[in-house]
From TrEMBL:
This is Biotin transport system permease protein. It is a multi-pass membrane protein. Its main location: membrane. It comes from the Bacteria. The lineage of its organism: Bacteria, Bacillati, Actinomycetota, Actinomycetes, Micrococcales. Pfam families: CbiQ (PF02361). Keywords: Membrane, Transmembrane, Transmembrane helix. PANTHER family: PROTEIN ABCI12, CHLOROPLASTIC. The chain crosses the membrane at residues 31-64, 76-92. It is found in: Membrane.
Length: 209
């Protein structure tokens, strides 16, 4: 197994070059595995389930040659949200259910990070488009659907990264705990990113007109 060779800080959802067995898997197979894992996470229950889930996520990163630094880079932006979520769940339903809920969320984000880090965007688009082609007989544009779903997949780590950067900007200004300022900065950044994406799509003739 050959390890990937990331350099510098790893933003959430960043692609990491490598030649591991996970890198070489077809994009369609990885997307199907991620979908199956998402469903399987709903069955996670109790401390044993949490331990098994943690082992699976660790194994996925190990096989992909990504290592703990990459795993942490994916879930690090969620840390304060997890604190609030864990505290709320603990208060409402108890410590074990709180642990289970947080584990499901972290595992899903981490596994999605593995898929995004080991798969080129164009391969994701091609896999989704191939799967959607049977729907063309019903008037569905497979290419547009593939693009939409690909953008949705990429949007999750992008939003997480935007929030993390907004928090860092607030910390630099001494306003780390100002929730309103954080929300405004994150919203503005998200809107700018969405506008830039829209401009890029229009430039390629992929707008709705």
């Amino acid at each position: 197994m050959s390890r990937a060779t990331p350099s510098g800080s790893l933003p959430a959802g960043a692609q990491v070059e490598g030649d591991s067995s996970v890198h070489r898997l077809p994009a369609g197979a990885k997307l199907l595995a991620l979908a199956a894992a998402s469903v399987a996470l709903l069955a996670v229950d109790g401390v044993v389930g949490v331990c098994v889930t943690a082992a699976v996520v660790a194994a996925a990163h190990l096989v992909a040659g990504l290592g703990p630094r990459h795993a942490w880079s994916q879930v690090r932006p969620l840390r304060w949200f997890l604190v609030v979520l864990a505290g709320t769940q603990w208060w409402l339903v108890g410590p074990v259910p709180a642990l289970v809920v947080c584990t499901r969320l972290v595992a899903l984000v981490a596994l999605a990070g593995v898929v995004l880090a080991t798969t080129r965007t164009c391969d994701v688009l091609d896999a989704i488009e191939r799967a959607a082609r049977p729907l063309e007989r019903f008037g569905v544009d497979a290419g547009r659907l593939a693009l939409t779903l690909s953008l949705a997949i990429r949007a999750v780590p992008a939003v997480v990264e935007i929030v993390a950067r907004a928090r860092e900007a607030g910390r630099a200004r001494g306003r780390e705990h100002d929730v309103r300022a954080l929300a405004v900065r994150a919203t503005v950044s998200a809107m700018r990113r969405a506008e830039a994406t829209g401009e890029a799509l229009r430039a390629r003739g992929l707008d709705d007109q």
